């Protein structure tokens, strides 16, 4: 991370324990025990929703959705009846953090896995959460679940993820929350340099690693899909729009049209969150009406590069009615 004055520094998560299948953690893998609290707006949370759906963990891990708006008290369940999560019974996610630690004063973030019986957050370790869904929750995967973290490609997947975490996933935030021109310029340059290198990598291959979707694709995609709706304007990442980067635009459309990706994406909630919560950047709170997102459904031509989206697995089934997002069609 840069030491340039005015640079955005992401705080470490405060409860990064892991839920493990071998019993070595105080939080064991157990179907029905945990509720995944996510938010449609947040890219870090979105990737957990995607992986949960691709692996078929819906029956093992329930899903609670915090709304796009929050205040100093944390993410809140303002889309649910009575403004409370129907399973946890809480109004603010911070209540589950304080149930685990009454003195908790770090960031209250999504995604978080909450132990339903106690109401305590078990983990908000977003960096390990989806990897653990792939490697620790295998007993609860659906038939035909893809291998998103294949052992033979893990070193390369880890390397690729590391190459764009700070410059792209976190880089858009480094642009948006920079408080000096130099810090912004540094983040901006690193962001677009990395996007250019990713365009080169994806020009002749359909996916980032191997011939099927992996964890690396999920992590890159959640930033790309938000680019024009939020980061280009709101975070000043404005050298180009995603729609003006041909390879990355086609790659993003390909995945958007793949079950698990577009059917978990809510553009309205994304815009409501970024423009409605970041008052230092957008004091008016006015949410833009654009951009036109219908282009995500246009032909992408990426199938000509080969590859099998789910490898030896199969696509997930239809989204559960209670988890559906507004369709572009």
State the end-to-end CA separation.
41 Å
Percent of residues in beta strands:
5-15%
Stretches where pLDDT falls below 50 for ≥5 residues? none
What is the typical, i.e. mean, pLDDT?
95
Shape: globular
The SS-based structural class is alpha/beta
Organism: Pseudonocardia petroleophila
Domain GST C-terminal: 150-274
Active site: 42 (nucleophile), 173 (proton donor/acceptor)
GO molecular function: glutathione transferase activity
Write the layout of secondary structure elements.
Layout: E1 19-20, E2 27-28, E3 34-39, H1 43-55, E4 62-66, E5 70-71, E6 74-75, H2 94-100, E7 112-115, E8 120-123, H3 126-135, H4 154-169, H5 171-176, H6 181-202, H7 215-224, H8 227-231, H9 246-256, H10 267-277
Parallel strand pairs: 1-2, 3-4
Antiparallel strand pairs: 3-7, 5-6, 7-8
Helix pairs in contact: 1-3, 1-7, 4-6, 4-7, 6-9
Keywords:
329 residues; alpha/beta; Glutaredoxin; Glutathione S-transferase Yfyf (Class Pi), Chain A, domain 2; 2 domains; 4-stranded mixed sheet; two-stranded parallel sheet; 10 helices; 8 strands; GST_Omega-like_C; Glutathione-S-Trfase_C-like; Glutathione S-transferase C-terminal domain-containing protein; glutathione transferase activity; GST_Omega/GSH
Q: How would you portray this structure in words?
A:
The chain is of the alpha/beta class. The protein has 2 domains: 122 residues, 3-Layer(aba) Sandwich (Glutaredoxin); 173 residues, Glutathione S-transferase Yfyf (Class Pi), Chain A, domain 2, CATH 1.20.1050.10. It has 10 helices and 8 strands. Strands 4-3-7-8 form a 4-stranded mixed sheet. It has a two-stranded parallel ribbon with strand order 1-2. α1 packs parallel to α3, α4 packs antiparallel against α6 and α4 runs parallel beside α7. The longest helix has 22 residues. It is globular, with a radius of gyration of 19 Å. The protein starts with 18 loop residues before the first strand and ends in a 52-residue tail after the last helix.
């Amino acid at each position: 991370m840069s030491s340039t004055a005015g640079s955005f520094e992401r705080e470490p998560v405060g409860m990064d324990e892991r839920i493990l299948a071998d019993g070595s953690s105080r939080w064991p893998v157990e179907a029905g025990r945990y509720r995944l609290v996510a938010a449609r707006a947040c890219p870090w949370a979105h990737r957990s929703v995607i992986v949960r759906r691709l692996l078929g963990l819906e029956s093992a891990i329930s899903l609670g959705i915090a709304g796009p708006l929050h205040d100093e008290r944390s993410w809140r369940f303002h889309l649910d009846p009575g403004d409370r999560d129907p399973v946890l019974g809480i109004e603010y996610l911070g209540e589950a953090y304080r149930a685990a630690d009454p003195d908790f004063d770090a960031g209250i973030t999504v995604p978080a896995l909450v132990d339903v019986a106690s109401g305590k957050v078990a983990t908000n370790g977003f960096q390990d959460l989806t990897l653990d869904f792939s490697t620790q929750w295998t007993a609860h995967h659906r038939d035909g679940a893809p291998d998103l973290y294949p052992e033979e490609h893990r070193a390369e997947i880890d390397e690729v993820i590391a190459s764009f975490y700070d410059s792209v996933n976190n880089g858009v935030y480094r642009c948006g929350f920079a408080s000096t021109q130099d810090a912004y310029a540094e983040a901006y340059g690193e962001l677009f340099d990395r996007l250019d290198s990713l365009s080169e990598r994806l020009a002749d291959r359909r996916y980032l690693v191997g011939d099927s979707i992996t964890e690396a694709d999920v992590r890159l995609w959640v930033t790309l899909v938000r680019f024009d709706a939020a980061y280009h304007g709101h975070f000043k990442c404005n050298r180009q729009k995603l729609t003006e980067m041909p390879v990355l635009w086609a790659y993003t459309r390909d995945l958007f049209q793949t079950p698990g990706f577009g059917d978990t994406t809510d553009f309205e909630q994304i815009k409501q969150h970024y423009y409605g919560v970041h008052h230092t950047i957008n004091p008016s709170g006015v949410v833009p009406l654009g951009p036109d997102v219908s282009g995500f459904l246009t032909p992408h031509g990426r199938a000509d590069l080969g590859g099998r989206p789910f490898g030896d697995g199969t696509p997930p089934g239809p989204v559960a009615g209670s988890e559906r997002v507004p369709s572009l069609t």
